[in-house]
């Protein structure tokens, strides 16, 4: 390696007419090194690498991923590289992205400016912030309209957050998702904070609804509603939403089921509990702060909200719901039934469009792949299938069956043959033929008087 002084001297000697060999002997370095510095192939003061960097085999993958998604988080890319065998550190990856210019330039994002925010103190165990995240373009197997719905709950003090996927954002699914997230968080805080979602409050006034007041009393929490257009007031959950959308949702593949997506989100949330924090001058983590929060246990029973979801019956007289299948009586294939489940109960009811209850089953564990059949449904389905069978001898496929007379006549009509064509007349009575032949065998004779009169 040549220093800046050595590089300057080498260029000066070269201008004075020295040969490369003479310059190399004068500086005590190799001729090839002198030639590289004089040609500008090497930078003075930087040592040339004798072995490739750890990132080198993965540069092309990084370039492709960032070209496909310029806003892909480096932490998400780092997780993917680790699974591919990358042994470097996260700082080495971000350094390579900057030095090699792997992330494409996004002009619209350069014009976005930050805004001033205030730091709000959140005592431990006091507040949980809630928000829906509408995730676009869900996998086709989820049977969602345009968005997948994720309810995110975050502890305001420690920043621990968890999420629960839901098929809709109505009142019953909000209650179910709140309970699922609270179980994952480890308990209930003193207060819950929401934005102006219609299932919680009246958006115009910000006053909570009578239905959700019952939910708040059930969990013994106070409810705070944010002022309109004040996203910073619940900035903890907003940042969690950002992480869920950017670090998790962007990596969900088309063949992922809802249960698999929920499991992968849970693993990510547990991993993010290891984020480093510094409180009162002491180094700690999000998980340690969350474990120290004084959370209350959930009530023994769920709030009795009633879930209703529509499903289509399969030809096997089964209805798919939450990763399991439940039987209905035969004869409903292709019909739409309503799956009804009251939170806290262990039964599932299936009703027709007219409101008739056609089946009631004990609910299986979600995502277990169980097939829950009623014995009466099994017998009725077997009888319906067997009654459709026939003991008659099946038709043979090698019988000679030429076109019938009616088919020939219709074919002639299609060809345009006239209906009174003598050539098309078929003689079916031989007596008519004999009488005609006898009449034609006698020569007709004419009377002379008649001829004279004519």
UniProtKB/TrEMBL annotation:
Domain called Integrase catalytic: residue spans: 120-302
State the Gene3D superfamilies in the record: Homeodomain-like (1.10.10.60)
BP GO terms, sorted? DNA integration; DNA recombination; transposition
Q: Look up the domain of life of the source.
A: Bacteria
Q: Which GO terms describe its molecular function?
A: DNA binding
Residues in HTH IS21-type domain copies: 5-66
Q: Which UniProt keywords apply?
A: DNA recombination, DNA-binding, Transposition
Give the InterPro entries listed for this entry.
Answer: Homeodomain-like_sf, HTH_IS21_transposase_type, Integrase_cat-core, IstA-like_C
- Record-linked Pfam families: HTH_23, Mu-transpos_C_2
* UniProt record similarity statement: Belongs to the transposase IS21/IS408/IS1162 family.
Question: Which protein are we looking at?
Answer: Transcriptional regulator
* Naturally occurring in which organism (per UniProt): Mycobacterium dioxanotrophicus
């Amino acid at each position: 390696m040549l220093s800046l002084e050595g590089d300057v001297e080498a260029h000066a000697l070269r201008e004075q007419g020295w040969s490369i060999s003479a310059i190399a002997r004068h500086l005590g370095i190799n001729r090839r090194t002198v030639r590289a510095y004089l040609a500008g192939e090497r930078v003075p003061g930087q040592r040339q690498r004798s072995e490739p960097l750890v990132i080198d085999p993965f540069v092309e993958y990084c370039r492709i991923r960032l070209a496909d998604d310029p806003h892909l988080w480096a932490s998400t890319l780092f997780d993917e590289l680790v699974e591919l065998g990358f042994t470097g550190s996260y700082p080495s990856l971000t350094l390579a992205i900057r030095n090699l210019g792997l992330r494409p330039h996004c002009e619209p994002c350069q014009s976005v400016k930050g805004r001033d925010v205030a730091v709000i103190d959140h005592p431990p165990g006091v507040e949980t912030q809630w928000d829906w995240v509408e995730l676009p373009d869900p996998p086709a197997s989820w049977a969602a309209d345009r968005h997948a719905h994720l309810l995110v709950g975050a502890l305001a003090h420690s920043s621990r957050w968890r999420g629960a996927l839901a098929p809709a954002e109505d009142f019953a699914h909000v209650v179910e998702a709140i309970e699922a997230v609270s179980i994952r968080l480890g308990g209930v805080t003193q207060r819950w904070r929401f934005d102006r979602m219609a299932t919680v409050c009246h958006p115009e006034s910000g006053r909570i609804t009578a239905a959700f007041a019952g939910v708040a009393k059930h969990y013994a929490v106070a409810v705070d509603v944010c002022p309109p257009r004040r996203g910073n007031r619940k900035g903890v959950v907003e940042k969690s939403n950002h992480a869920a959308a950017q670090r998790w949702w962007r990596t969900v593949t088309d063949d992922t089921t809802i249960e698999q997506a929920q499991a992968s989100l849970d693993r990510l949330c547990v991993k993010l509990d290891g984020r480093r924090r510094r409180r009162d001058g002491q180094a700690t983590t999000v998980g340690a702060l969350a474990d120290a929060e004084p959370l209350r246990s959930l009530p023994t029973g769920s709030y009795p909200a009633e879930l209703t979801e529509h499903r289509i019956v399969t030809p096997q007289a089964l209805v798919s719901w939450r990763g399991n299948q439940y039987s209905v009586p035969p004869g409903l294939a292709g019909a739409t039934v309503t799956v009804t489940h009251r939170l806290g109960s262990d039964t599932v009811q299936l009703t027709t469009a007219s409101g008739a209850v056609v089946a009631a089953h004990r609910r299986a564990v979600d995502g277990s792949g169980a097939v829950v059949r009623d014995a009466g449904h099994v017998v009725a389905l077997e009888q319906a299938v067997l009654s459709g069978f026939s003991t008659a001898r099946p038709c043979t496929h090698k019988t000679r069956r030429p076109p019938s007379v009616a088919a020939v006549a219709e074919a002639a009509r299609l060809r345009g043959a006239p209906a009174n064509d003598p050539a098309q007349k078929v003689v079916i009575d031989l007596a008519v033929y004999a009488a005609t032949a006898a009449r034609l065998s006698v020569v007709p004779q004419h009377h002379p008087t008649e001829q004279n009169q004519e």
